[in-house]
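To: structure desk
From: M.T.
Subject: fold request, one chain
Message: Could you run this one when you get a chance? Sequence is below, nothing fancy, just the single chain.
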Amino acid sequence: MPNLLTRRLALLTEDANRALLGGLRGIERETLRVDPAGHLASTPHPAALGSALTHPEITTDYAEALLEFITPAENDIAVTLNKLDTVHRHAYSRLGSELLWSQSMPCALPPEEQIEIANYGSSNMGTLKHVYRRGLALRYGKAMQCIAGIHYNYSLDEKLWPLLAANPATSASGQSEQGSARDVQSASYLATIRNFRRYSWLLMYLFGASPALAAGFLRGREHKLDTLSDDTLYLPYATSLRMSDLGYQNDAQSGLRPHENSLEDYVSALTHAVNDPYAPYEALGTKKDGEWIQLSTNVLQIENEYYSTIRPKRVIRSGERPIQALCLRGVQYIEVRCMDVDPFEPVGINLQAGRFLDAFLLFCALDDSAPISAEQSACYTSNFARTVKEGRKPGLMLRRDGQEIALQAWGEELLARIAPVAALLDARHGGSEHADSLKAQAAKLADPDATPSARVLRELRANGGSFSAFGLQQSERHAAFFRTQAPSAEQTVYFDQLAASSLDEQRAMEAAPQGSFDDYVASYRASTLCPQC
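Reply: Done. Structure tokens follow.
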């Protein structure tokens, strides 16, 4: 009998169902502002870009200099990337001489006290965002919070899940599945996330682009990196040091493994993390000399502090917490968080990568996805960790079903299984872009030197081995690319209106009557700030 993936593909090949392969795509791109010498910008968030608190497409992440561009959700990743290109062009028209850093790993950073935490104004909401970032600085250090990435937001048509569940041949249980449409959809996205956990090491091999970093980034921490030059550390076979234990890591989170076997398990794990005290944080307290230094002394201050490679998501309402939204209305989309910024692409990602991600994620959504045991979870984590540090090592072995398998052989098997998914997407879109994206990835599996991480190391060695010099060179190239073609008059009006309205919205929030910040934090913790929830 054909396997579940084959049966589902056959169902979706039917003309009446092919339209359900649509859905929405969005990208969040983080990037540091730097001065012309490649040093972290010390200027505040440009007022010409609007309010970082309320602007829908241009905000900041951790630091005042860490911009985040957010595209609207679109039906085609090509449209999404065009929108991302436009916001970059607009930003450059308002940045003066400053540049956008081209790497995931940060530029050479100043001392911690000189890294400015993002400021969102005097409203209670703005203060909450700022204090949360104070807590991040306290818990992880400021340097780690200056790392940048590409977040890929992905959803499928909401009519797809009931179709699969109603057909016994294509339901995960082999029979018509019961439950509300919300429950079926949430369970399907959690199944997608489980498959992502199984196979996301492949994305790090294919797209990891941070095998080196500025020597000062580690702030004296112990490490086992090699020296490439006076100012640069690296690992010879690494693909993504950003996603290694040198990047996003913390002792408090080391034991936090939200279960992806059900939405209830996932929400329960995060609920405990945002409510369970952690002794080292308790010793610090929430205030120092009367000033807030973190929102809580728990394992996580808020849910978004969990550094996962992928998250189930729901658009939240004003004042609503992420787990509150998931509980009330279920999973709406998934957010892939492990993609490095591609330093060779002006917007940090290209269309070919987007087409592959669409095929990969649809494969994860359609393939069978059994629950994950604790032992399997540890294995998947190990495969991922091995790939980010040694992915290009000749003969590297991963573990699958208790047996060792060569990374290259497993990768080739996966591409072969994804191929009919890519063909189905091409049949819907026309052309061969998805199949072509698979061929490009197959070339990387056949030749590790074709990967972005290998290309980065070649470029570094060709330019004296300096990570900072390479990052500045690429940033200058991207700046020249965007500055050669200014935004259209229509685009300028659009972004200027967004900036003005966002500043007006922030001023109105600050002028409105507000209770004490202490009470606001208490209400946020109690999940009572959203009047519609």
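Reply (cont.): The chain has 19 helices and 14 strands. Let me know if you need anything else for the meeting.
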